[in-house]
Amino acid sequence: MKEQIDRILETEKEVRGRIEQAREESRKIIRKAEGKSREIVNQGREEAFSRSREIVEDYKQRAKEQREKQIGSVKADSEDFFSERKGEIEKAVTRITEMVSNPGN
After folding, report:
1. pTM surpassing 0.85?
2. Is 82:89 a contact under the CB 8 Å cutoff?
3. Which residues are CB-neighbours of 70 under 8 A, at least 6 positions away?
4. pLDDT tens-place string over residues 59-92
5. Under 8 Å between Cβ of 103 and 96
6. To 10 degrees, what angle do helices 2-84 and 86-101 make?
7. Rounded Cα gap, residues 5 and 10, in angstroms
8. Taking residues 5-10, what's their average pLDDT?
9. Sign of dihedral through CA atoms 41, 43, 49, 55?
10. Which residues contact 25 (CB under 8 A, 6 or more apart)?
11. Mean pLDDT (the chain, rounded)
C-alpha cells in the first residue's frame, strides 16, 4: 500500500513538474508573440508615418507648382494689361503732369 501511495505521489510530482514546464513554455511563447506583435505594430506605424510624410511632401510640391503657375499667369496678365493700355496711361500721365504744372489752366 505504501508503495502505491509513493508511486501516486511520485506521479503527481512528475505531473506538477510537467505542468510547470508547460506553463513556463507557454509564458515564453506569449512573451515572444507579444514582442513580435510590438515589432509589427511599430513597423506599421513607421510605414504609415513615412507614407504620410511622402503625401505631405507631394502636396507641398504640387501647391508650390500651382502657386508658381498662378504667379506666372498674373504677371502675364499684368504685362498684357499695361501693354494694351500703354497709350491711355501715357495720356493720363501727361494730363496729370500738365494739371500739376499748370493748376490754373
Report:
1. no
2. yes
3. none
4. 999 999 999 999 888 888 888 788 888 888 888 8
5. no
6. 60
7. 8
8. 88
9. negative
10. none
11. 90
